[in-house]
């Protein structure tokens, strides 16, 4: 008799085999999807590598797009165009001459008269003596090379000729560094050369030597530290003024300090930035040995307002503790989509272009409301920017579901998703900024300087650098010429007798009263 299998058992067996095959197929599909994504990622990395190697490093999008820069830490040295009164600039289908440098009317002038010889002042036609009818004037810029002079402080001494017991000596103003050969002018020159012009001290030593002055780098470094300590009362006032504003910007960048307790010379310390814009702008640098959440807590204290920062998690603790409004930076979101755009196949538009089109519209609106009042800005944002934000949100929700997070587009999309509530916060108040570019622009002078002098030797040197950068950049933000400002500070601050005397040296105070301190661009 032949064997007949149980139909039920046979069916169960077949279903079990089907489940196994289905599971294997799903596993193969997953492996295939993973491999495809990895291939796409490798192709993307190859395109990005080629782009970074051969393409322009700028973020050019559109001529009417607000200029946004890469992270300050990643900026490459830019080659500036030589400005000349004879060069020509190509514009579309025509050329126009570059604007000549403007020489301010109030600058001192020296006239060199080029006249005709007496024999040439006679008309060749009828012998009549020529009459002066006018002049052709061509102005040039000249420079007076640095000059060094010695200043002798002579303190007169007097005594009573009768009793010969009473002797009195005339006083002299206190100096920024007592018993030093450096005047306020010389100190201001060295500070500006290092921190505003990014000239390392060893180069300044060579420059001084060329004009016959023998100084060494240790002396100059000690001067910088003492100047940084001298201006500490002003720095404290800058920090207080910043925290009195409703909105502050924050950022940080790395700094190498060679001799730091408990750390190796190769380890990284940080320069933190606290910045405000508006009527009395403040650019406040703060040195700290690490990048940690307790640093913004220390800087902000009991501040209650809005903070514009990047996506660094270290800011979240103080935001929760003080119930701060944390604003997100659209410039950071935009950069990530630009990276995704660069990774697209050449000549092919993609989803990154779609996101950038939305963001570009937001910045176009910001350009329109730049000079509006806070209330007007809020109204325009609500009526014009919010509908664009809503469309971008709808686009984001659809794109998020189908974009691998490992890809450049995926990173951009997930960053936008994770930062969304912070990014759209600027719609709630006309005083809120759309991005953290002011902070990145303010920290750039430090980054440029760091590329030249590379590191700080000690904690005291790093702290002095923070203080001096703070004064220079705040002076510039308030429209002051930084050398003249530091010259005034180093002269008057040592002789300050009260808090009012120190407050009178704040950049916005001098900007109101001293026109000669105003910055002039040529």
Automatic annotation (TrEMBL):
Record field: compositional bias (Acidic residues): 74-84
The chain positions of domain Transposase IS66 zinc-finger binding read 120-164
Show where the Transposase IS66 central domain sits.
179-463
List, for all copies, the residue spans of the domain called Transposase TnpC homeodomain. Answer: 41-112
Ranges for domain Transposase IS66 C-terminal come to 470-508
Instruction: State the residue spans of region: Disordered.
Output: 74-103
The record, for InterPro entries, names: IS66_C, Transposase-related, Transposase_IS66_central, Transposase_TnpC_homeodom, Znf_dom_IS66
Source domain of life is: Bacteria
Alphabetized NCBIfam families for the sequence: transpos_IS66
Protein name stated in the entry: IS66 family transposase
Biological source species: Zooshikella ganghwensis
Taxonomic placement: Bacteria, Pseudomonadati, Pseudomonadota, Gammaproteobacteria, Oceanospirillales
């Amino acid at each position: 008799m032949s064997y007949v299998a149980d139909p039920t058992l046979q069916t169960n067996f077949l279903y079990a085999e089907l489940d196994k095959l289905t599971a294997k197929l799903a596993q193969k599909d997953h492996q295939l999807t993973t491999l495809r994504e990895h291939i796409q990622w490798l192709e993307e990395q190859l395109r990005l590598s080629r782009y970074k190697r051969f393409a322009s490093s700028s973020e050019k999008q559109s001529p009417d797009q607000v200029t946004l820069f890469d992270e300050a830490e990643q900026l490459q040295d830019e080659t500036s165009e030589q400005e000349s009164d004879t060069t020509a600039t190509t514009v579309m289908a025509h050329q126009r001459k570059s604007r000549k440098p403007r020489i301010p009317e109030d600058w001192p002038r020296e006239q060199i008269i080029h006249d005709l010889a007496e024999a040439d002042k006679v008309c060749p036609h009828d012998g009549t003596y020529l009459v002066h009818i006018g002049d052709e004037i061509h102005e040039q810029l000249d420079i007076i090379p640095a000059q060094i002079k010695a200043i002798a402080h002579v303190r007169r001494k007097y005594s009573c000729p009768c009793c010969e017991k009473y002797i009195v000596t005339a006083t002299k103003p206190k100096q920024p560094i007592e018993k030093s050969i450096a005047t306020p002018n010389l100190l201001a020159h060295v500070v500006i050369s290092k921190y505003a012009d990014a000239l390392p001290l060893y180069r300044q030593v060579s420059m001084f030597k060329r004009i016959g002055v023998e100084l060494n780098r240790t002396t100059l470094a000690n001067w910088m530290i003492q100047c940084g300590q001298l201006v500490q009362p002003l720095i404290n006032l800058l920090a207080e003024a910043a925290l009195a504003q409703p909105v502050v910007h924050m950022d940080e960048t790395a700094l190498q300090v060679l001799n730091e307790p408990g750390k190796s010379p190769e380890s990284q310390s940080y320069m933190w930035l606290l910045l405000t814009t508006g009527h009395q702008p403040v650019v406040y640098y703060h040195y700290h040995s690490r990048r940690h959440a307790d640093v913004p807590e220390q800087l902000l204290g009991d501040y209650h307002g809005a903070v514009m920062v990047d996506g660094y998690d270290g800011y979240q603790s103080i935001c929760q503790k003080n119930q701060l409004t944390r604003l997100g930076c659209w410039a950071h979101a935009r950069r990530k989509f630009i990276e995704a755009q660069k990774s697209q196949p050449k000549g092919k538009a993609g989803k990154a272009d779609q996101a950038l089109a939305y963001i570009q519209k937001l910045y176009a609106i910001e350009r329109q409301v730049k000079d509006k009042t806070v209330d007007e800005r809020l109204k325009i944002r609500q009526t014009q920017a919010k509908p664009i934000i809503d469309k971008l949100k709808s686009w984001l929700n659809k794109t998020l579901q189908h974009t691998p997070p490992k890809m450049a587009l995926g990173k951009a999309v997930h960053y936008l998703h994770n930062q969304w509530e912070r990014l759209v916060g600027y719609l709630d108040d006309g005083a809120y900024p759309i991005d953290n570019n002011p902070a990145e622009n303010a920290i750039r002078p430090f980054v440029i300087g760091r590329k030249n002098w590379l590191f700080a030797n000690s904690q005291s040197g790093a702290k002095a650098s923070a203080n001096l950068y703070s004064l220079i950049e705040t002076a510039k933000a308030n429209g002051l010429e930084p050398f003249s400002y530091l010259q005034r500070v180093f002269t008057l601050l040592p002789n300050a007798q009260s808090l009012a005397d120190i407050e009178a040296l704040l950049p916005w105070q001098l900007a109101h009263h001293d026109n000669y301190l105003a910055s002039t661009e040529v």
